[in-house]
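Title: Comparing notes on inverse folding

I've been comparing how different people in this forum approach sequence design from structure. To keep things fair, I'm posting one structure and asking everyone to reply with a full sequence. Here's the target:
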């Protein structure tokens, strides 16, 4: 007896274009921005600091995992900052996998209602470019985005 893989409801694709508004990085609710050891190394290098300095200043442990801290009052990611009057991620080029896969998170893709609910916060959802089902699945699986960079530069192996 073979198991059939359930066809996702978004088999026809979904529209999304990041407009870099920063809403996915901001409160009001508190959350976690999980980072891995290789991502921590990339972020530290980008900010020209040691991983120890980065950990002390911008990260905290939650059980066995590490998360980026948030502003105490706004609950925005600490790396979401005002630059020339616009809210921008100052580590965008080395942002964690969790950020890279937005909005194609499993919770957001549960059903059309979940997708449309998150679209209330994210103005880039249901707009512009269509991502195919295959592209969405690939994005969801891309947990180790840094591997290509490691192979070419030899960095972030600690």
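Reply #1:
Here's my take.
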């Amino acid at each position: 007896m073979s198991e059939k893989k359930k066809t996702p409801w978004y088999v026809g694709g979904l529209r999304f274009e990041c407009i870099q508004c920063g809403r996915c990085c901001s409160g009001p609710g508190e959350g976690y921005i999980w980072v891995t050891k290789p991502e921590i190394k990339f972020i530290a290098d980008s900010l020209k600091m040691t991983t120890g300095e980065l950990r002390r200043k911008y990260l905290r442990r939650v059980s066995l995992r590490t998360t980026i801290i948030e502003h105490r009052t706004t609950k925005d990611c600490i790396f979401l900052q005002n630059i020339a009057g616009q809210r921008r991620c100052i580590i965008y080029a080395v942002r964690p996998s969790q950020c890279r896969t937005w909005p194609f998170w499993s919770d957001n893709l549960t059903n059309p209602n979940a997708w449309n609910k998150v679209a209330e916060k994210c103005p880039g959802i249901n707009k512009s470019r269509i991502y195919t089902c295959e592209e969405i699945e690939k994005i969801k699986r891309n947990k180790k985005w840094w591997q290509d960079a490691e192979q070419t530069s030899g960095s972030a192996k600690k």
